[in-house]
Amino acid sequence: MSLKQQRIFWALLFLVMILAAFIIPFLPPLKDLPRVYGAFLFWNIFALVVIVCLGIITARWRDDDGR
Asked: How many domains are contained in the chain?
């Protein structure tokens, strides 16, 4: 996968995650739970997914200065 394709992939993935952060807490599975428990569950899972994605991005980060 080229660098441009990787950038597009990660940009779209983070866009989906941001949209999910605003949409998922109001969907029926979490909406029917008590607010504290549903929000706590969602935000913990969401935070773990974001941390893993950022870890993958930074693990592959390298400086190609032509050496």
From this structure: 1
